Amino acid sequence: MAPKRKTAEKPSDDNNTTRVTRKSPRLATQAKPPVVAVEPKPKTKKAKVSPKKKAESKAAETTTEAAPPQTSSKVETGSKTVVIEHCKQCNQFKVRAVKVKLGLENAISGINVLVNPVKPRRGCFEVREEGGKTFISLLDMKRPFAPMKALDMDAVISDIIDQIK
Fold first, then answer.
1. Which candidate, 112, 105, 67, 46, places its Cα nearest to that of 59?
2. Is residue 57 part of a domain?
3. Which domain holds residue 85?
């Protein structure tokens, strides 16, 4: 190891000496920005309301103002509710669920079709009536989801429509 260099200057006894660095001129010229009080943002996000729901709520408000509140703004009491539960693991489930939903809504007027009202099960594709009658149930499917791919969705939709009517 090389010996340490000795400095020629003697250290001054002055306590006011400061170390000069390359950054010190910049620090001296910079002014500190004023402190501004900022309101804290809320931790939760506001739920966005879709235009469709806005129109429904406005329509409900106008009907309740014009008519007495004896009748509900919901769909007819004789209407049926169908629940489609599909896994979110793969997009193939979603495509088939949307196809069934559109097919049922176009074929039967006044039907409610709910897609995944609660957290879906894994590998599941199930179409059932809210009362409990199950039209199609494919549970615990593994990739590549052969039972679901083998289905003819048009035939499934027509079978469901016949069973509902």
1. 67
2. no
3. 78-164
